[in-house]
Amino acid sequence: MSTDARVALVTCAIFPDLWDDDHPLRDALRERGVIVEAVRWDDTEADWSRYDLTVIRSPWDYVARRDEFVAWASGVPRLANPADIIAWNTDKTYLRDLAAAGVPIIPTEFVAPGGTWTPPGEGEWVVKPAVSAGAHDTVRYELPAQLSLAEAHVERITGAGVTAMVQPFLAAVDSAGETAVLCTPDANGELTFSHAIRKGPILRPAGQGAIDLGDEEITPRTPSAAELRLAEQVLAAVPGGAKRLLYARVDMIPGPDGEPRLIELELTEPSLFLLTAPASAPRLADAIISRL
Ligand SMILES: Nc1ncnc2c1ncn2[C@@H]1O[C@H](COP(=O)(O)OP(=O)(O)O)[C@@H](O)[C@H]1O
Ligand SMILES: [Mg+2]
Fold first, then answer.
1. Mean pLDDT across the stretch 275-291?
2. 112 partner at 20 to 30 Å CA-CA among 89, 137, 195, 234?
């Protein structure tokens, strides 16, 4: 097949040729006759009106420049996922909306800049910023022994104008790991289950921060019925409905009762782990073509 269709896959300066995991998507689109270009989101020369669809993939340096990134998204015609979703999903305070809709999230205290909070009691807790990717500035603390460190961390985040999140550390991540459920449109355009992976634990023991992302442990996983149900429940609560989405990744960790808790809903720039599931890239390429 040959089309004149042109698709931009959005990346950043660090990955000018895309992240490896997006190569199967690029190749599947090219095999289908689509012209594919990898473009930096902050490329001032880029003319986004040239593309039949602009698909966000690896713009990972936006974390320190979120306002600029959200403004960029709102100016791109034909963007996947849509700009209003990007604005909502790049600040994890969206978890409050999902909790209000009945989704079991990891219990979270959100500390807004200038806000106050009550430090939790004993046990292991995680402090992290609400605008993040790749476990940026995410640390686990043993309380009360490390209370002053945890408090200083919250102050550092909020002092930079970002909401801080304080959560119980879900210890099951060290054994069961984290499950990411990937959803893309089926032949009818309905967002449905594509594949899933297990991600090994990222946080080192209390006070030590995260492992190197290069050491991240990713393996295919068959999700449990409860995990699939949680993914469905989360997607049903997305503002405007999931039908508008080209991709979604629902990340979860078992809570103390073994039932999955939502850690994040990735609608902006998730790694889709296409390399772990050979059918996933052709499926996503077909979905992109049917939306052109
Ligand atoms: N409450 C928690 N309990 C256990 N592990 C956590 C918790 N919060 C974060 N983590 C670990 O830190 C990683 C990054 O946190 P996450 O909330 O997914 O932010 P990011 O957007 O940076 O991926 C997770 O993949 C997980 O391994
Ligand atoms: Mg994550």
1. 97
2. 234
